[in-house]
Amino acid sequence: MKTPIVSFLKSYQEKSPVRMHMPGHKGAGILGFEGMDLTEIYGADELFAAEGIIKESEQNASSLFGCPTYYSTQGSTLCIQTMCTILCQDAKSKGKKPKILAGRNAHRSFIHAAALLDFDIEWLYGNSDYLSCKINEEDLEKAIIESLPTAVYLTNPDYLGNLWDIQSLASVCKKHNVLLAVDNAHGAYLRFLEPSLHPVDLGADLSCDSAHKTLPVLTGGAYLHLSDSLNQVWKNDVKHFMEYFSSTSPSYLIMASLDAANEVLDTTFKKSLSECIQRVDGLKNTLVQYGYTILSGEPMKITISTKEFGYTGNEIANLLMECDIYAEFYDSDYIVLMPSPYNTKDDLKRLETCLCGIERKPILANKPPKLEQSKKAMNVRQALFSPSITLDVSKSLGQVCSSVTVSCPPAILPVIPGEVISESSIEVMKYYGIETVRVVKE
């Protein structure tokens, strides 16, 4: 598979051109890779008006993912904002006011999108905790019938690696003529399993992937995917909507990494992924035999519920750091490790040796406090743009949350802007070490 962006950047660099254009390092900066860092000069195409090498590269990605695919150099955040714009515009085109039924564990970028686009949200709480939001067909159908949303928005996989039955949930959405958008930020690699578990393959109308999370792509590289049917309606508007939220100077280094990844995904990645999954499965089995509790879920996450082993996730993470091993995420209850095919066998062996060198202790019995459903006082946009003050969490009871800075790891909010802060939300914030919160100024 050709890599047109990479080829152009290398060709330009090899000419030793006189760079009378941005950026200011002129290809000769101090880091060593500036030679391929360009702006939208002649021949380099434009990300949001792609007609040349970027269009060709996106078409290559589309063929790999089996659906219309668009690049983002601003991570899944830009893709989520664009997905929400499409959901809003689709509702308005049908004469409806946008109202999105969303899993409560939505990332805070979804909350920002709600504030910027001013759409209503109805929350799905599921039957899990606030890091997960397990939704089944019956619960989703009941919620759709009761709240009459114009779209459904789910996070799958979630941060702990849980995978829900997207195919069945998509069928419920189609039954009620409701669009389904899936934040698949952690699951770009799911397309390359046999069979594919990618949301669009399972019936979702829109999906975003953070390519950099699980594929060999630089940080910030992401994909926005549309189903063929939805793309037929909005293909002339997608890039226009992306421009609403994006920089006018997208990174060519990130685009080049997305472009270069296409060749890898087309050739060696499936085999490398399959071999890595086998190694990770073997490591999980070893850890279980040693006494660890491993949560089931997606194959490329190792999520340990640490208290059964006698430690908090923070404590296990600190012990791993003493071995120069750094986890993706950890809190009082869990530690999340994210291997990829680019971790070596030695990497996994070092991880096994370190974890199996930790002495097991008595079980820690304390559990996260239960988060009750919060009372809504105003919508997200009103709350975020209202005058606000910062209070100690212990003094915030009854106040209206005004900010997403109360970021319960991993960027999932125990209380949403516009909601009244309750005793249970205060307990949750204290549990996660959140000491202050911004509230609407009275």
UniProtKB/TrEMBL annotation:
<keyword id="KW-0032">Aminotransferase</keyword>
<dbReference type="InterPro" id="IPR052357">
    <property type="entry name" value="Orn_Lys_Arg_decarboxylase-I"/>
</dbReference>
<protein>
    <submittedName>
        <fullName>Aminotransferase class V-fold PLP-dependent enzyme</fullName>
    </submittedName>
</protein>
<dbReference type="GO" id="GO:0008483">
    <property type="term" value="F:transaminase activity"/>
</dbReference>
<dbReference type="InterPro" id="IPR000310">
    <property type="entry name" value="Orn/Lys/Arg_deCO2ase_major_dom"/>
</dbReference>
<dbReference type="InterPro" id="IPR015421">
    <property type="entry name" value="PyrdxlP-dep_Trfase_major"/>
</dbReference>
<dbReference type="InterPro" id="IPR015424">
    <property type="entry name" value="PyrdxlP-dep_Trfase"/>
</dbReference>
<keyword id="KW-0663">Pyridoxal phosphate</keyword>
<dbReference type="InterPro" id="IPR036633">
    <property type="entry name" value="Prn/Lys/Arg_de-COase_C_sf"/>
</dbReference>
<feature type="domain" description="Orn/Lys/Arg decarboxylases family 1 pyridoxal-P attachment site">
    <location>
        <begin position="3"/>
        <end position="287"/>
    </location>
</feature>
<keyword id="KW-0808">Transferase</keyword>
<dbReference type="Pfam" id="PF01276">
    <property type="entry name" value="OKR_DC_1"/>
</dbReference>
